[in-house]
Amino acid sequence: MHWRVRALRYIDDKDLLKNGLPRVSYGPWSQTFTSVIVGGPLALPGSTTTLTDWNAQPYFLTSGDEGKTFDATGHAVKSTEVAGSSVSTGASGGTGSGSGSGTGGSSTSGGATSGATDANVDLWDSGWPNGRYYWTVVPVIAASSGKPTAGATGTSIEYDDAVVPQDQCEAGIGMSFGKVSQPVVTAGSSTPWVSGLAPSGRVIASASKVPAVHDSPLVAWEPAVGATTYEVQVSRKSYPWKTTWSTTTAATSVVLPLGTTQIGTWSYRIRGINPALPAGAQAMSWSKPVRFGITGDSFVVVKKTK
Predict the structure, then answer these.
(1) Phi/psi of residue 24, each to 5°?
(2) Tell me, what DSSP letter sits at residue 80?
(3) How far apart are CA 238 and CA 241, in angstroms?
């Protein structure tokens, strides 16, 4: 798959240049990137004939149907990469355990189970290093079911886990890892990415650790890995946090709706939203709260002299 990116901005159609031409609403294209995507479970040979062909030549697994797969107790297994499959939500901020079978590609995970309409292929924050996930590889036996495969020669194949994943983990045949979601980066070395109308009357970018603008500050941040949208919250204080305004955006910048009458010090924070996580656990880590000031209008008393 080849893909490229360009920035878009929303403008008023009435916002025309003096020559009558509209403003350009998009930026230049980035370079072209190439990716190989497997968007789901791996398609496995479904009959003895295709299995023979698969063993006889170099064979690359592609995304598709796994066929009939069963765990070691005989229960059917549905991969969590399949849209509409059930996923484990676990306890909030807690740990879970997972295992994936080898050829069969079946997988199980600890925690409570809930339904999902989309395939969830990412894991939420486990609270590393205190919390973690456990995984193991389960050997699979490809066995003939003795039934002909519709539309093909040979008999159909089913894939059976040779052992129970929990037994593998209890035997020490497995490893663990942690997941820490990436917080949104809202500043450079020390200066937040805030710009707006400065008290001096100039539109400038922030040059202070606690920037101050006249009103309607524009705040920006770096994209977070895994996030497709971002939640922005504003509070009068960084602690205790009490949200006074919030929004969700797919962009990496937003104008905070603070006018000239809302003078004082404020704080904002941002977190990414990852749709590949299970429902209820798609929010990522918050950024550190950023303090800024709204100056509003200022007046100077001038003594009139004769």
Answers:
(1) -70, 130
(2) T
(3) 5
Residue 119 CB contacts under 8 Å (≥ 6 apart), including other chains: 39, 40, 80, 81, 82, 83, 84, 85
Residue 19 identity (one-letter amino acid):
N
| Rg, C-alpha atoms of the chain | 28
In angstroms, the CA 134 to CA 97 distance is 5
- What SS3 string covers 268-291? EEEEEECCCCCCCCCEEEECCCEE
Whole-angstrom CA distances from 174 to 51, 70, 79, 99, 133 are 29, 21, 20, 9, 11
Query: For residues 165 and 172, what is the distance between their CA atoms, to the nearest angstrom?
Result: 11
Coil, strand or helix at 84 = coil
Q: Are 45 and 51 in contact (CB under 8 A)?
A: yes
- Tell me how far apart the alpha carbons of residues 161 and 13 are, in angstroms, rounded to a whole number: 61
CATH of domain 194-294: 2.60.40.10
| Rounded distance between C-alpha atoms, residue 195 and residue 221, angstroms | 12
Q: What is the pLDDT of residues 62-95, one digit of tens each?
A: 777 888 899 998 899 888 777 654 444 333 333 3
Whether residue 99 contacts residue 169, with contact meaning beta carbons closer than 8 Å, is answered with yes
Q: Largest alpha-carbon pair distance within the chain?
A: 111
pLDDT tens digits, 208-237: 899 999 999 999 999 998 899 999 999 999
